[in-house]
Amino acid sequence: MVHTLGDNNSLFNQFIAEIRDVNIQNDPLRFRRNLERVGEIFAYEISKTFNYSEKDVQTPLGTAKMNLAEDEIVVASILRAGLPLHNGLLNYFDRSENAFISAYRKYNEKGEFEIKFEYISSPSIDGKVVILADPMLATGSSMELAYKALFTKGTPKHVHIVSVIASAEGVEFVKEKLADENITLWMGAIDSELNSKSYIVPGCGDAGDLAFGAKL
Asked: 50 Cβ partners below 8 Å, 6+ apart?
């Protein structure tokens, strides 16, 4: 199942617009904060899918019966661009465990690239709900690699894949490669084009560079 939050008119679209805006992008603090705010909205929407049970909560004047989520959550992000989005998810899932995956594009002299995986830090994900976040879903290869890396740490109950801006090609790639898996895709916006360098068009540029500065 694919949920595209930007298809519905809400304040969410203002944050996506600012993430895309080349002038607002000149302020890295603002860019990171917008990714964080988008993560908070994703967290709220994803929370509606959890299992809930009734709990007694003691107040100064009595006992309130509240329906509270009972799922164990692991928030996982692909470094480095995923960190602000991760923080937004963690602001709401503040009792969750955390996982981090290092995956990147390694270019050759012809400008072609392959996705390299180097490192994962993760708790056991057995029976837990995993939220796997990366701001951009371009070709989908990094997401597939990160997904498979997580499964070295157990078998989750369900995986929610979160991206702020995706390409239609990337979404179809993930749906095809992970067709038999128990996953839900949560996208902010889906753009129709990938250019010759596999960047999303119109997209927003390189989210990692915009958030943390250019790299060699």
From this structure: 69, 70, 71, 129
pTM of the model: 0.90
Give, for 68, the enclosing helix (H) or strand (E): strand 62-69
83 inside domain: yes
Q: Which of 99, 4, 81 has the alpha carbon at shortest distance from 42?
A: 4
What CATH number is given to the structural domain containing 87?
3.40.50.2020
In a domain? residue 38: yes
- What's the structural domain count of the chain? 1
Q: Which tokens go with 101?
A: 């995956």
pLDDT tens track for 153-200: 999 999 999 999 999 999 999 999 988 789 999 999 999 999 988 889
Tell whether 23 is covered by a domain: yes
Peptide bond before residue 80 is cis, with ω within 30 degrees of 0: yes
Q: Is the dihedral of CA 88, 89, 90, 93 positive or negative?
A: positive
